[in-house]
Amino acid sequence: MGKEETAQMLRYFGSQVKHFRGLKGMTQEELGKAVGYSLDTIASIEQGRRPPPLKFFDPADCVLCAGGIIANAKRFLEFPRYPAFFAEFADAEAKAISVSYYECMAIPGPLQTEPYARAAISAYCPPYSPEQVDQYVAARLERKALLTRKPPAILGFVIEHAVLRRPIGGREAFKKQLLHVAEAARRNNVTLQVMPDGCEEHAGLEGPMTLLETEDRRMVGYVEYQGGSEWVSKPEDVSVLHQRYGIIRAQALTTRDSLALIESLAGEL
């Protein structure tokens, strides 16, 4: 849908919420308390000024005895599942034949647990609203399907040692995160390596990157920077990223030693 169509849908949805609220004889404040949202949020929804949070639909339908009219509306309204700069990559990643990640800042998205993802997304500056955090966390967790989908994607990860010592979400949550990474590393479609701190030569100093093989067997690269991202599609530029990634893998620990290190780090927490 275009922006105007979306706006019309939101206004119509808001009018339905207001209609059923009226039938129940409830005020906006009473509805808000019943479903866990503020008066301002309910007013904004009824006026069509903002999309309702995903967790609004089912409770509101139940409280207002709407018979599924409100609950089913979430199938027809658009929601920003990802930040704008990332949405195209997420779609390509889900369909990719193979993906290779080099990450030096955080655990790669498809390997993140819910507490880790929530802590990382909540730390964004400027901060997201609680509803945005919930939506982005849910979307990030959906990316984990890449590990188990059929036919399987071939996945490669190289993660900096420092990332595995950064306890995002707290020590207990991070221990579970490390064990989850170790479990993923044992999958036969996953290759996972750790870049050691003591590496004197490093081909990844230009920052994180991802190499992706598309459905139609094209090789492309993807890089992120502050607040944005860029696709790398020219063959000569993709070739450079492949060369760098190959050297990074050669400089990293073996898969066996990497798994042992991750398990050891988890045992220290």
Describe this structure in words.
The protein is of the alpha/beta class. The chain folds into two domains: 3-75, 434 Repressor (Amino-terminal Domain); 87-268, Endonuclease, Chain A (2-Layer Sandwich), CATH 3.30.870. The protein is built from twelve helices and six strands. It has a six-stranded mixed sheet with strand order 3-2-1-4-5-6, sandwiched between helices. Helix 10 (171-185) links the parallel strand 2 and strand 3. Helix 2 packs across helix 3. The termini are far apart.
Per the CATH scheme, the topology name of the largest domain is Endonuclease, Chain A
- H/E order of the elements? HHHHHHEHHHEHEEEEHH
The class by helix and strand makeup works out as: alpha/beta
Main sheet characteristics: 6 strands, mixed
Give me the CATH architecture of the largest domain, please. Answer: 2-Layer Sandwich
CATH class of the largest domain: Alpha Beta
